[in-house]
Design brief:
The protein is of the alpha/beta class and 294 residues long. The protein is built from ten helices and eleven strands. The chain is globular and about 50 Å long. The site of ligand L34 has 19 residues, from helix 2, strand 4, helix 6 and helix 10.
Amino acid sequence: MIAKIIDGKLIAKKVKEEIKAEVAELIDDNNDTPHLVAIIVGEDAASQTYVASKEKAARNVGITSSVYRYPAETTEEELLNTIDFINNDDEVNGLIVQLPLPDHINVNKVIEHISPDKDVDGFHPINVGKMAIGQPSFISATPAGVMELLKRYKVETEGKHCVVLGRSNIVGSPLSILMSKKTNPGNATVTICHSKTHDLPSITKQADILICAIGSPEFVTADMIKKDAVVIDVGIHRVPADTEKGYKIVGDVNFDEVSRKASFITPVPGGVGPMTIAMLLKNTLLSFKKEFNQ
Ligand code: L34
């Protein structure tokens, strides 16, 4: 048996079509469009690709998009000043600062500087806190994308054992919270594993749903999963390969092996990545509609 592919590219396309239709209606009604601003500092190649994809996707659904590009030497103060300026611009509904940032910039300080009302990445402590206690808020795009995939593929999560590999602020931690909530998808029994976990395979093998966000290429192998598990691969790595670009993209999961044992699996590329972009646009639309204003 080969696993059914959870097609993130296809679902992202559908989500974007839904957003596009709603934005078109808003334009008819008020002659006004949502506006997303992305800030990128430095030359990280993957970040450049992701931000370019976000800009293009925004434009395709009718969301105005601006990108502020700064050199790696930009000071923290300069960045904070730019954020102030955008926070105060009533024409802007969504503001993201693409991560990672150069080492001399304090990422927490930057995130806390973004107005929670424009924080369409859902990284601000106010939004993370609201998410944690189940209040309406911006949910980070990658976790929101995973939840949306589980929902649209009607993966049963209630009462299931969901094992989350990784405890990052951006992916592992929020997903462990979301999967444990009294929601659908959700209502799962959740275990979080991390670098200090003893005998990791003994735990991953118990997972009905395994969410992999550890940041290690092709780490999860077939012997680590239960037969017919649902495997969600949030990892994204560029590894050297004999291709035109000199690299190929793989996830945290050894797809060839694991797809022969799982019941559902997300591919990389074409799984969670495209959903991150679609859910960012969704959050920008929600911000425009002032769904979560303080
Ligand atoms: N502030 N920083 C902020 N917000 C985010 O939501 C992100 N993230 C992560 C990195 N830093 C961030 C993203 O945008 C990861 N991420 C992201 C976005 C898009 C894709 C992957 C990660 C994506 O489009 N992936 C494609 C392949 C892209 C390629 O060719 O490299 C895919 O099919 O998986």
